[in-house]
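SAMPLE LOG
Freezer: B-3
Tube label: C17
Construct: single chain, 529 aa
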Amino acid sequence: MKSINKIFIPLLLLVAITGCNKSYLDRPSQSTIASNNFYQTTDELRLATSNLYGPPWGQWNNGGLISFGDVMSGNGTTGQYQGTDNNELFAVNLSASNGIVNGAWTGLYNIIGQCNNTILGIQQYAPATIAATDKNAAIAEARFIRGVAYFYLTMHWGAVPIVEDNSKLIAQPQINRIITTDVYKFVTNDLTYAVQNLPLTDVKGRVTTWSAQGMLSKVYLTLAGLGGNGTRNQAYLDSAKKYAGNVCKNSGKTLYPSYYDLFKVQNNDVAEDLFSFQWAAGADYNLGNMLNNYAPGSSLMPYKIGGWAAMQPTISFFSLYSPKDTVRRKATIMLNGDFFPELDAADGGYTATGVCLKKHIIGNEVDNSSPLMSWYSSPEHNAVLRLADVYMVYAEAIMGNNTTTSDPDALLYYNKVRTRAGVDPLTTITLDTLISERRIEFAFEGQYWMDLVRLSYWQPAKALAIINSQNRSFFSYTPATPGVPAVVTPAASPVVSVLPATLSSFQLQLPASELTANPKLAEPPIHYY
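STRUCTURE (predicted):
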């Protein structure tokens, strides 16, 4: 596994701009551009930043995103796929040599390295003929994406190294971890710059100030609980409320009308999607979106190739759906007997024959009018931050340190999410209902483990109780017939033995390969500021 300096130092010399010239972002076709010859026009700045939305995220998207967010948190798993690595995640019992953990670390630092190159390339090589607002906006895109990558790093590993100038690793390849509070400060600084310098509007798929304000609100909500011991920092809660409320009330954005249709390729980058990964069909392995491989088999894959990692939900997750919550359930998981006319449509549609994931399963190349689509390059632009998320952050920030809230604003935006799903609005929000609502709304979008980490910061006993009370068994489903109700039958035990989580479970071990390459990571973290 590559260590940090092996990721960053090669990026000093060249900026790799890869992608498909038919992408909506009009990335350059496969080429490598020397940084001191690039960044000469506003168009070139846009080309450089466009690359940061897609291929660099491949390793994270195809590894840690769902493996941490949904497998480790108990929403589902792929059984024996990825063998010991995946089973360790599902059992919440990880080793330092876990390949998924190592890959996620490497992937996030690769993103950071490319963002650093873009930022420094613009600062050093962009001529004075480019307007300052254009330069600042391009830097803001890169700082937004870098801030998100560091946010993910510190939420999963706590104290981590900060690198903002790749060249410094040449003189000093051995670097310390930085204390968690300083990493969060770095994240908020990047996102605050993005808030101030990104435009109000842009072409579909690019981030705006509303994207940055939404993400910053989520970071402040998280930071509010850090070391809270039962309470959260009110100043940070107020900041979360401020930025989330501004997005809710002043962005002009609304939820997409149909939750089910939100995840179809033809609805990529709708207004609800504040930040989405931008994938192109035909991308190389691990430079594209591979989440369609969670399909139950090759019949739902392009050219009938793939579908080797069928994701099955747990009974713990499935039991959260109320009888009215059918729209979100069918958009998220398939049950035996469900019919999906949009999947394998040329052959008359697809009828599920078991229980498995539906979200991210978009069908084959004909279903998506995408002849370049492959098993490792789905054209789905999966959202990292949705407006619904900001609505929920706003409601939680208003609730703050109270156990419940009936605040009209909190209820208004919280219930917008429920109403869109076809379930009854609530008159009171509790922390328990909010946690469950987020788990259902953002299932298999890589969010739930971070929700539990956020909770563990200030209510560790509650976070542990949630994990340790889960039944992580699979289940079978027999659909209803006239006069006979549907039958749900849990398996006798989980696919692997799940060990009781402890507080240390909420912080991943540092990858063994990193510790070997950089022994200073084992030292106590230091201050950055």
